[in-house]
Write a structure and sequence with these properties.
By secondary structure, the chain is α+β, with helices and mostly antiparallel strands. It contains seven helices and 13 strands. It starts with 19 loop residues before the first strand and ends with a helix.
Protein backbone atom coordinates (compact mmCIF):
# COMPACT_ATOMS: atom_id res chain seq x y z
CA UNK A 1 0.00 0.00 0.00
CA UNK A 2 1.02 3.52 -0.48
CA UNK A 3 1.83 5.65 2.53
CA UNK A 4 1.27 9.23 1.41
CA UNK A 5 0.18 11.96 3.81
CA UNK A 6 -2.95 10.64 5.58
CA UNK A 7 -4.23 14.06 6.62
CA UNK A 8 -7.70 14.45 5.05
CA UNK A 9 -8.56 17.45 2.92
CA UNK A 10 -12.23 16.54 3.51
CA UNK A 11 -13.97 13.66 5.31
CA UNK A 12 -14.12 10.40 3.36
CA UNK A 13 -17.35 8.43 3.34
CA UNK A 14 -16.13 4.88 3.90
CA UNK A 15 -17.87 1.90 2.37
CA UNK A 16 -20.09 -0.26 4.59
CA UNK A 17 -21.75 -3.67 4.30
CA UNK A 18 -25.08 -3.65 2.40
CA UNK A 19 -24.36 -0.22 0.97
CA UNK A 20 -25.36 0.25 -2.68
CA UNK A 21 -23.01 1.98 -5.09
CA UNK A 22 -23.45 3.11 -8.67
CA UNK A 23 -20.18 2.75 -10.57
CA UNK A 24 -19.72 4.12 -14.08
CA UNK A 25 -19.05 1.29 -16.51
CA UNK A 26 -20.10 -1.36 -13.99
CA UNK A 27 -23.57 -0.40 -12.75
CA UNK A 28 -25.18 -0.77 -9.34
CA UNK A 29 -23.32 -2.88 -6.79
CA UNK A 30 -24.15 -3.99 -3.26
CA UNK A 31 -21.26 -4.25 -0.79
CA UNK A 32 -21.28 -7.77 0.67
CA UNK A 33 -18.24 -7.67 2.96
CA UNK A 34 -15.64 -5.16 4.12
CA UNK A 35 -12.18 -5.56 5.66
CA UNK A 36 -10.13 -2.66 7.01
CA UNK A 37 -6.43 -2.86 6.27
CA UNK A 38 -3.77 -0.46 7.49
CA UNK A 39 -3.71 1.65 4.34
CA UNK A 40 -6.95 0.72 2.56
CA UNK A 41 -10.46 -0.59 3.01
CA UNK A 42 -11.31 -3.55 0.80
CA UNK A 43 -14.33 -5.71 0.22
CA UNK A 44 -16.49 -7.83 -2.04
CA UNK A 45 -19.49 -6.51 -3.95
CA UNK A 46 -22.17 -8.05 -6.16
CA UNK A 47 -24.30 -6.83 -9.01
CA UNK A 48 -27.99 -7.70 -9.39
CA UNK A 49 -27.11 -10.66 -11.64
CA UNK A 50 -24.75 -12.13 -9.01
CA UNK A 51 -21.47 -11.09 -10.64
CA UNK A 52 -18.86 -10.58 -7.93
CA UNK A 53 -16.39 -7.71 -7.76
CA UNK A 54 -13.48 -6.65 -5.59
CA UNK A 55 -13.58 -3.08 -4.24
CA UNK A 56 -10.72 -1.06 -2.79
CA UNK A 57 -11.08 2.29 -1.06
CA UNK A 58 -8.03 4.39 -0.21
CA UNK A 59 -9.00 5.00 3.43
CA UNK A 60 -6.67 3.93 6.23
CA UNK A 61 -7.36 2.43 9.63
CA UNK A 62 -7.71 5.80 11.37
CA UNK A 63 -9.93 7.37 8.71
CA UNK A 64 -7.23 9.13 6.72
CA UNK A 65 -7.79 9.50 2.99
CA UNK A 66 -5.05 8.77 0.48
CA UNK A 67 -5.78 10.79 -2.63
CA UNK A 68 -2.24 10.50 -3.93
CA UNK A 69 -2.31 6.70 -3.65
CA UNK A 70 -5.69 6.54 -5.41
CA UNK A 71 -4.52 8.69 -8.31
CA UNK A 72 -1.18 6.92 -8.50
CA UNK A 73 -2.62 3.41 -8.64
CA UNK A 74 -5.36 4.40 -11.08
CA UNK A 75 -2.92 6.03 -13.48
CA UNK A 76 -0.33 3.27 -13.18
CA UNK A 77 -2.76 0.39 -13.81
CA UNK A 78 -4.14 2.27 -16.83
CA UNK A 79 -0.62 2.33 -18.29
CA UNK A 80 -0.09 -1.43 -18.05
CA UNK A 81 -0.75 -4.11 -20.66
CA UNK A 82 -3.13 -6.97 -19.86
CA UNK A 83 -0.12 -9.28 -19.38
CA UNK A 84 2.73 -7.72 -17.44
CA UNK A 85 5.35 -10.41 -18.10
CA UNK A 86 5.00 -13.86 -19.58
CA UNK A 87 2.34 -15.75 -17.62
CA UNK A 88 1.45 -12.87 -15.27
CA UNK A 89 -1.83 -11.07 -15.87
CA UNK A 90 -2.86 -7.69 -14.46
CA UNK A 91 -6.09 -7.51 -12.46
CA UNK A 92 -7.85 -4.69 -14.33
CA UNK A 93 -9.72 -1.70 -12.94
CA UNK A 94 -13.26 -1.91 -14.26
CA UNK A 95 -14.63 1.25 -12.68
CA UNK A 96 -13.98 3.97 -10.13
CA UNK A 97 -15.84 6.39 -7.89
CA UNK A 98 -13.51 9.37 -7.61
CA UNK A 99 -15.25 11.17 -4.74
CA UNK A 100 -15.06 7.98 -2.64
CA UNK A 101 -11.47 7.12 -3.69
CA UNK A 102 -12.83 3.73 -4.76
CA UNK A 103 -11.64 1.28 -7.42
CA UNK A 104 -13.64 -1.72 -8.68
CA UNK A 105 -12.00 -4.84 -10.13
CA UNK A 106 -13.23 -8.32 -11.02
CA UNK A 107 -13.35 -10.76 -8.11
CA UNK A 108 -10.88 -13.56 -8.87
CA UNK A 109 -10.66 -16.62 -6.62
CA UNK A 110 -6.96 -17.06 -5.91
CA UNK A 111 -4.44 -17.92 -3.25
CA UNK A 112 -1.55 -15.74 -2.16
CA UNK A 113 1.54 -16.44 -0.08
CA UNK A 114 -0.01 -14.86 3.02
CA UNK A 115 -3.54 -16.23 2.58
CA UNK A 116 -2.91 -19.97 2.45
CA UNK A 117 -3.77 -21.47 5.82
CA UNK A 118 -0.59 -23.55 5.90
CA UNK A 119 2.37 -22.80 3.63
CA UNK A 120 3.33 -26.46 3.45
CA UNK A 121 5.82 -27.77 0.87
CA UNK A 122 3.02 -28.62 -1.57
CA UNK A 123 2.75 -24.87 -2.21
CA UNK A 124 6.39 -24.60 -3.31
CA UNK A 125 5.50 -24.89 -7.02
CA UNK A 126 3.17 -21.85 -7.17
CA UNK A 127 5.51 -19.99 -4.80
CA UNK A 128 8.28 -20.64 -7.30
CA UNK A 129 6.09 -19.22 -10.06
CA UNK A 130 5.65 -16.08 -7.97
CA UNK A 131 9.41 -15.78 -7.45
CA UNK A 132 10.17 -16.22 -11.15
CA UNK A 133 7.49 -13.70 -12.11
CA UNK A 134 9.01 -11.15 -9.73
CA UNK A 135 12.44 -11.76 -11.25
CA UNK A 136 11.02 -11.27 -14.75
CA UNK A 137 9.48 -7.96 -13.66
CA UNK A 138 12.81 -6.70 -12.32
CA UNK A 139 14.65 -7.87 -15.45
CA UNK A 140 12.18 -6.61 -18.04
CA UNK A 141 11.51 -3.24 -16.42
CA UNK A 142 15.18 -2.25 -16.03
CA UNK A 143 15.49 1.19 -17.64
CA UNK A 144 19.17 2.01 -17.19
CA UNK A 145 22.39 0.14 -16.51
CA UNK A 146 24.76 2.84 -15.23
CA UNK A 147 23.69 2.76 -12.49
CA UNK A 148 21.11 -0.04 -12.94
CA UNK A 149 17.58 1.21 -12.18
CA UNK A 150 14.16 -0.34 -12.58
CA UNK A 151 10.72 1.21 -13.15
CA UNK A 152 8.36 -0.56 -10.76
CA UNK A 153 5.60 0.41 -8.32
CA UNK A 154 5.30 0.86 -4.56
CA UNK A 155 3.18 -2.27 -4.08
CA UNK A 156 5.68 -4.67 -5.68
CA UNK A 157 5.49 -7.54 -3.17
CA UNK A 158 5.24 -11.35 -3.29
CA UNK A 159 1.95 -11.10 -1.38
CA UNK A 160 0.43 -9.11 -4.27
CA UNK A 161 0.69 -11.93 -6.77
CA UNK A 162 -1.89 -14.70 -6.56
CA UNK A 163 -2.53 -17.98 -8.32
CA UNK A 164 -5.82 -19.63 -9.28
CA UNK A 165 -6.67 -23.33 -9.12
CA UNK A 166 -6.11 -23.51 -12.87
CA UNK A 167 -2.58 -22.12 -12.45
CA UNK A 168 -3.08 -18.57 -13.69
CA UNK A 169 -0.98 -15.86 -12.03
CA UNK A 170 -2.48 -12.43 -11.32
CA UNK A 171 -0.83 -9.27 -9.98
CA UNK A 172 -2.74 -6.58 -8.05
CA UNK A 173 -2.40 -3.81 -5.42
CA UNK A 174 0.05 -1.64 -7.33
CA UNK A 175 0.21 1.83 -5.85
CA UNK A 176 2.00 4.65 -7.68
CA UNK A 177 4.92 4.13 -10.04
CA UNK A 178 8.45 4.52 -8.71
CA UNK A 179 12.01 4.20 -10.02
CA UNK A 180 14.58 2.47 -7.78
CA UNK A 181 18.09 1.09 -8.02
CA UNK A 182 17.74 -2.57 -8.99
CA UNK A 183 19.48 -3.69 -5.79
CA UNK A 184 17.09 -1.66 -3.62
CA UNK A 185 14.00 -2.94 -5.46
CA UNK A 186 15.20 -6.54 -5.16
CA UNK A 187 15.99 -6.04 -1.46
CA UNK A 188 12.44 -4.79 -0.87
CA UNK A 189 10.98 -7.84 -2.58
CA UNK A 190 13.23 -10.30 -0.71
CA UNK A 191 12.50 -8.61 2.64
CA UNK A 192 8.76 -8.70 1.92
CA UNK A 193 9.10 -12.40 1.11
CA UNK A 194 10.94 -13.06 4.35
CA UNK A 195 8.21 -11.26 6.28
CA UNK A 196 5.35 -13.17 4.66
CA UNK A 197 3.35 -15.79 6.52
CA UNK A 198 5.56 -18.86 6.20
CA UNK A 199 3.98 -21.75 8.10
CA UNK A 200 5.71 -24.99 9.04
CA UNK A 201 3.05 -26.12 11.51
CA UNK A 202 -0.46 -24.84 12.30
CA UNK A 203 -0.32 -21.78 14.49
CA UNK A 204 3.44 -21.38 14.32
CA UNK A 205 3.82 -18.90 11.47
CA UNK A 206 5.09 -16.17 13.83
CA UNK A 207 8.31 -18.06 14.49
CA UNK A 208 9.08 -21.02 12.25
CA UNK A 209 9.26 -20.37 8.50
CA UNK A 210 8.58 -23.05 5.90
CA UNK A 211 11.96 -22.86 4.20
CA UNK A 212 10.95 -24.51 0.92
CA UNK A 213 8.34 -21.81 0.32
CA UNK A 214 10.64 -19.00 1.40
CA UNK A 215 13.41 -20.09 -0.94
CA UNK A 216 11.01 -20.68 -3.83
CA UNK A 217 9.99 -17.02 -3.72
CA UNK A 218 13.26 -15.35 -2.76
CA UNK A 219 15.99 -17.32 -4.52
CA UNK A 220 15.17 -16.16 -8.07
CA UNK A 221 15.67 -12.53 -6.93
CA UNK A 222 18.49 -12.80 -4.40
CA UNK A 223 21.38 -12.43 -6.88
CA UNK A 224 20.14 -8.93 -7.79
CA UNK A 225 20.92 -7.63 -4.30
CA UNK A 226 23.00 -8.48 -1.23
CA UNK A 227 22.58 -9.34 2.43
CA UNK A 228 23.42 -5.81 3.64
CA UNK A 229 20.64 -4.28 1.50
CA UNK A 230 18.11 -6.86 2.69
CA UNK A 231 19.08 -6.38 6.35
CA UNK A 232 18.70 -2.61 5.91
CA UNK A 233 15.22 -3.12 4.45
CA UNK A 234 14.25 -5.47 7.29
CA UNK A 235 15.41 -2.84 9.79
CA UNK A 236 13.31 -0.22 8.03
CA UNK A 237 10.26 -2.48 8.16
CA UNK A 238 10.81 -3.11 11.88
CA UNK A 239 10.89 0.63 12.56
CA UNK A 240 7.78 1.22 10.47
CA UNK A 241 5.84 -1.37 12.43
CA UNK A 242 6.92 0.16 15.74
CA UNK A 243 5.85 3.65 14.65
CA UNK A 244 2.77 2.73 12.66
CA UNK A 245 0.07 5.37 13.28
CA UNK A 246 -2.81 3.27 11.93
CA UNK A 247 -3.06 1.02 14.99
CA UNK A 248 -4.51 2.92 17.94
CA UNK A 249 -6.07 2.03 21.28
CA UNK A 250 -6.02 -1.64 22.30
CA UNK A 251 -4.99 -2.74 18.81
CA UNK A 252 -2.03 -0.39 18.93
CA UNK A 253 -1.04 -1.59 22.41
CA UNK A 254 -1.31 -5.24 21.33
CA UNK A 255 0.89 -4.53 18.31
CA UNK A 256 3.57 -2.89 20.47
CA UNK A 257 3.51 -5.71 23.03
CA UNK A 258 3.70 -8.30 20.26
CA UNK A 259 6.64 -6.59 18.59
CA UNK A 260 8.55 -6.49 21.87
CA UNK A 261 7.88 -10.13 22.84
CA UNK A 262 7.08 -12.80 20.22
CA UNK A 263 8.01 -10.27 17.54
CA UNK A 264 11.63 -10.26 18.70
CA UNK A 265 11.83 -14.01 18.19
CA UNK A 266 10.13 -13.75 14.82
CA UNK A 267 12.52 -11.02 13.66
CA UNK A 268 15.54 -13.06 14.80
CA UNK A 269 14.31 -16.01 12.72
CA UNK A 270 13.73 -13.75 9.70
CA UNK A 271 17.26 -12.35 9.98
CA UNK A 272 18.66 -15.87 10.31
CA UNK A 273 16.83 -16.95 7.16
CA UNK A 274 18.19 -13.91 5.31
CA UNK A 275 21.72 -14.93 6.21
CA UNK A 276 21.05 -18.51 5.09
CA UNK A 277 19.64 -17.28 1.79
CA UNK A 278 22.87 -15.44 0.98
CA UNK A 279 25.33 -17.83 2.64
CA UNK A 280 26.04 -19.82 -0.53
CA UNK A 281 26.36 -16.78 -2.80
Amino acid sequence: MTMDDPRPTSPLDVITVRERLVVDGVGELTIQSVKQRNWSRVGRAESADGTRYFVKQFADRIGGRHDKGFRGETDFVASLPDTLVDGLRVVPVLGRVDERLLLVAPFIEMSTIDSISQALPRHAAPAGQVGRALRSILDERTISHDPPEVAVWKGLDPKNIGWTKSGELWVFDFGPATVLPVSAAAARVVAAGLLSRWVARPGSHLVWPERSILRAVCEPIADLTDLAAVEAELGKQARLRQQEPQRVGLAGLATQVGLRTVGRVHWAVVEREARRLFASR
